[in-house]
Amino acid sequence: MPGGDGTCDLPETCDRFQRCSMIQMISLRKGSLMPEYTALQHATLIDGTGTDPTPDSTILIVDGKIEAAGPVGSVNIPSDAEIRDLAGAYVIPGLMDANIHLVSARTPDTLLEFEGRYEELAFEAAEIALKYGLTTVFDTWGPAAPLVAARDAINAGKWRGSRFFCAGNILGLEGPMSQDFFKTGLTFEPETLDRINEIWEVGCGTKLISMTIDQIGEAIANYIDGTGVDFIKYAASDHRAEGFLLFSEQAQKKIVEVCHEKGLLVQAHTTTVESLRMEVEAGADLLQHPDVTGGTPIPEKLMAEIVTKELPCMTLMVTERYLAWLGEAKPTMATKRSVADQNNRTFIEEGARVLLTTDAFAYGQRVKNHAGFRPGILEDTVPDMPTQIGRGHFLWIQAAWERGLAPMEILRSASAYIAQAYAKDDLYGTVTPGKVADLVVLDADPLAAPENYGKIRDVIKDGITVDRDSLAASRLLADDPGEYVPA
């Protein structure tokens, strides 16, 4: 992919993506010719801090950051500023997703086909995410090296897409061609399986669970140093149907200790009440899908501890329509989902800090056609499928609304609270002075109805209005979900 001087920073990237990147670089350079000052005027500002909306506001952007924001007349606009009239619109912070997966090669055939160029898939997914208002996302499972390369290219402005931060592998789990993710059976020789899986594992797969506590700490320290990931996610319980515990409480505390020594936040994959309790006791900074506890709701004592400690809860809320469909089509799954739904309602009732979380990836017909990948779940007939990048965050907002989360809290759960949870709130999450100018301009009030989040007029990232029509124009594995229209 060409860098700013036209040279290729990622020589393994295919020629098609190099050509696409050059087009994007031209667009980005045009963006740099904009006036130094941009003033957005007359929109209703909902800044994400929890304060009341500001009608007829002015937002002054200087060099990609918010210089000032407030009622018209309260902000001094330089004479050479570009002025945009947004009368009738609503401006909110750029939206975020606390749990997403940008590399969409999820079946054996696509894993092999895209080997050596997984960053292309990350670019594709990041473009789709940005097109639909997600200016920042957090990738919680994927191949570290390709993700870090894509992250650096996007965050440096060499490619358009959602800004993202990544964890790489879920430590303690095997790679995608394994019993933890895709059961390949006897289809591939061991060398092929090991080669692909190691791109994800980087020495921190299931072999960790057979190590001593000190060896686990050393392996994770090496993983952090060797990959350059932004945060860590480990598996407190497995990724299979059983929900077995993987690490002892002492081992989990060691994982958290090492991550904190390295200056990284840590979260855990949990699927049972006990694995969730252990994650909390180990000192995890964020709770990954804590609503998923199998067939047992979270006990009152553990729920109270989560609320008291103000631990961010990355919850996988789904709509009533989806739950109803599961009840008819997938009764076994519906039972576990109903427990998760009960947990989510309790989180909201007790005032827990919930974060917009979709577990989404970018997929298209080729993935849906694969008989071994979530059969019957990714079909077009499934209502409100929650795990598609570009669509899932709107459905989470709808689900949170249905469960009684206050409208302002929904907005903050999709922006400011995520930035705070990942310690990125110095730059992102609110439309306030000093923050990066990541904004979504809506044609309707998001506090009045959840579907209004889908009525996007503009997406602004780093102070530059995104050409949404040009995003995700080329197709690799993903479908563009299209503008969100609730059923």
Automatic annotation (TrEMBL):
PANTHER family reported in the protein's UniProt record: ALPHA-D-RIBOSE 1-METHYLPHOSPHONATE 5-TRIPHOSPHATE DIPHOSPHATASE
Lineage: Bacteria, Bacillati, Actinomycetota, Actinomycetes, Propionibacteriales
MF GO annotations: hydrolase activity, acting on carbon-nitrogen (but not peptide) bonds
Xref: SUPFAM superfamilies: Composite domain of metallo-dependent hydrolases (SSF51338), Metallo-dependent hydrolases (SSF51556)
Designated name of the protein: Imidazolonepropionase-like amidohydrolase
InterPro entries, A to Z: Amidohydro-rel (IPR006680), Metal-dep_hydrolase_composite (IPR011059), Metal_Hydrolase (IPR032466), Metallo-dep_Hydrolase (IPR051781)
Domain Amidohydrolase-related: from-to ranges: 90-463
Database matches in Pfam families: Amidohydro_1
